[in-house]
Structure formats: structure tokens, C-alpha cells
Amino acid sequence: MKRIRVKVFFSVLYVLFLLCSGFQNTTAYGQVFKGKIVDESTTESLKYVNVTVPSLQVGTMSDKNGKFKLDISKVRLNDTIKISHLGYKTVKLSLKDLKALESRIVALKQKVYLLNEIVAVSEGSKSKMIGSLKYNKRKPQKFGLLDISSGYEFGVCIANNSPVKIRAVNFLLSKCTYNDLLVRMNFYAVEQDPEKDNTYDQKSKDKKPGAEYIPTDQDLHKLKLKNIASQPIYMKLSKEELEGGEVHFDVAQYNLTCEGSLLIALEFVEDMSEGTFGIWARNSGQVFYRSVGQENWASFGMSLCLNAEVVKLKK
Questions:
Q1: Which of 21, 58, 93, 197 is the most exposed place for a label (fewest CB within 10 A)?
Q2: Structural domain of 135
């Protein structure tokens, strides 16, 4: 009898577990908003678009077909949903309005750049490197990531105090187990916000140009960062390139110019499970990182082996 009771008891628990699991899954499923993002003019799907909830500091990214899934379990109907993509005007609408869209399709309008936003510049004859690929080979450090999630972004701040054009970016891969990898390269100019106490610019000028500048988390939260690209910049890495060694990425065609310090970051645009990605690093310095939806950056004590080839612009 005892054995029968035990079996019946566990059978009842198992049934209750299935019922509860089914209820939870149904609830979670009902709290995920599914939509699609397209170009307003061409109706073509827009891939890797950021869809965020600023008040909650959370978000997601559209896939290669423009489709996205946003967890709205904690989002209120009047909360603002922000949809942004380089080269397009940002769309902000409430969750209520988002649900009311026909076929749940969000159309983004291409941004028109004015003539005074595109400045013709004359390049100097010699290029220079800012940042560093050096690391301690006796005690090597690695910056590694496991099971990469889309929207994860990380990078380093580099001091600069003169107008330059970025020609290329280089970094040292330690090891990567993926067969291929697609990342988005982001270049943020550091701009001073006059409404906030900002000492970054002065500290940056005190540093030797090209050296890594290490602001504190408090300083970084005060920074006003502007992506200097006018369109998304993607870098596709093959299996051979991911086996290790120096990676060189030419960005001269994108006309990236900057007058001050900048943050160079790599952003993953696809979920990559069961794998590792590593870059050689140094003990000194800081790596800055954030996930999609997060306005502020966080950091930890380690610096990436990354530099950029730049050319000074003539005034």
C-alpha cells in the first residue's frame, strides 16, 4: 500500500507540475509581442533594428528578416517603445499604439542628410595608429564571451584631440569556435553635454593622443555619445579569420570623421549559442559593455587589444 500511495502521490504532483508549466508557458507566450520592421518607401524588411523600452532599459533586435519578439510582460500600455536604426528616423510610440498597427508592421523612414551635415575635408598624407594591440605575452589575458546574445556590445575608449578620419580597425582574436560571425561596428564620438558636469574632454586632452582613456563609470554615464556613421557597418568574419590572429577591417568608404575622443565597439547582431569568442586583452584599462535597450554603459578592469588607423584632417 505504501508503494501505491507513493506512486499516486508523485503522479498527482507530476500532473500538477504539467498543468502549472502549461499555464506559465501560455502566460509567457501571451506576453510576447511579435512584429516586423520595414522600409517605408520600399517595404523591404529591415534587419538588426533596435526595439527598446527606455523606461525599463530592456529591448530586443529584429532578425535578418526584419521580424522581432519583444517581452512585454512588464510593459504598460502607455510606456514608450523606441525603434531605432542608423540611416533612419527614430520612431517612438506607446505599447497601445504598437498593438494597434495594421499587421503589426512598423515602417521606418529614411533619414535625409542636409548638405551642412556632410563636410568635405582634405586628408593629410600620413596615417597614424590610435589604441594598441600590445599585451603581456608572458601573462596573457583574454576577453571571452560564451553563448553570445544579439544586441550585446563592447568596446574601448581612445583619446584623441584633433580632427581625424578613420581608415581601418584592427584587433587581435585569441580563439573563436564559431564557423562564421557577423558583427556591427559602432563608432561613437564623445560629445560634451553642457547641462551636465563633464570633465571627460579635459582629461582626454591631458592624455597622449592615441592612448586609451579610462573614464570611470560615473564619468561614462555623463558622456553624450554620438554614432558618427550614417549607415550600419557590418563585418563578416570567416572561419579562417576566426581561428586567431590579427583582424583588419577597412572602413575608409564610410567617411568616419571625429574631432575628439571616441568609443569603438563591436555589437553582435545574431544569437550565437554553444560557442566562444575571445580577444587578447591587457590587465590595464577598461572594457565598456551594454546590452540592447541599455542607455548607460558598464565596465570592468581589462582592455582590448584594438586599435584604429586614422589620418589627420587638414583645416
A1: 197
A2: 122-314
